[in-house]
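Example 9 (inverse folding). The structure is encoded as follows.
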């Protein structure tokens, strides 16, 4: 009953070869999936498009707030803090006119001239249609309309966050939750 070393000796190198081979395949797979232009490029550009859409949506909402503030200055105490938070949301998503939008707070009518400004992709921003609708004469109706816009945007972001990775998804979730809170505050303010 002697044990032969010759039967054990080949098993060691085979295991090591298998482990080294598996590690090499994992390393190559990791490098190739991130390095290919088709997979890595389209994912990155979709992420950038999602951020740009989110920034434009926030900027459009800021413009809507500006129109309501211009039509109903008596709502300034309620709307100014909410508007400032939306400006920060646009900036967090990389909005190009975040600084200009926060300066427009002192002069709500000053921002309406940029409602048709092209977006970074060269197309008119979606905020042009949002700010084109007239503001209701009744302050309560104007608040109800703003609440509906906040709610719709929060719902849109809640759906969009499922298509973006990590940090941007967390940011969208946070901003969607803030929008839902704004909608509640505006609804209560309209009562």
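The amino acid assigned to each position is listed next.
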């Amino acid at each position: 009953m002697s044990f032969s070393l010759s039967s054990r000796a080949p098993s060691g190198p085979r295991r090591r070869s298998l482990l080294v081979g598996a590690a090499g395949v994992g390393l190559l797979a990791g490098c190739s999936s991130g390095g290919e232009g088709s997979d890595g490029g389209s994912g990155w550009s979709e992420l950038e498009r999602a951020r740009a859409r989110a920034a434009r949506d926030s900027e459009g909402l800021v413009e809507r707030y500006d129109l309501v503030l211009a039509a109903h200055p008596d709502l300034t105490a309620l709307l100014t803090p909410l508007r400032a938070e939306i400006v920060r949301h646009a900036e967090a998503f990389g909005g190009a006119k975040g600084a200009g939008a926060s300066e427009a707070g002192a002069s709500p009518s000053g921002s309406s001239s940029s409602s048709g400004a092209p977006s970074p992709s060269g197309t008119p921003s979606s905020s042009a249609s949002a700010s084109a609708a007239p503001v209701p004469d009744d302050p309560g109706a104007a608040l109800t309309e703003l609440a509906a816009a906040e709610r719709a945007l929060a719902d849109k972001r809640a759906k969009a966050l499922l298509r973006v990775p990590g940090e941007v998804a967390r940011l969208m979730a946070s901003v969607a939750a803030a929008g839902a809170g704004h909608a509640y505050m505006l609804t209560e303010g309209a009562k």
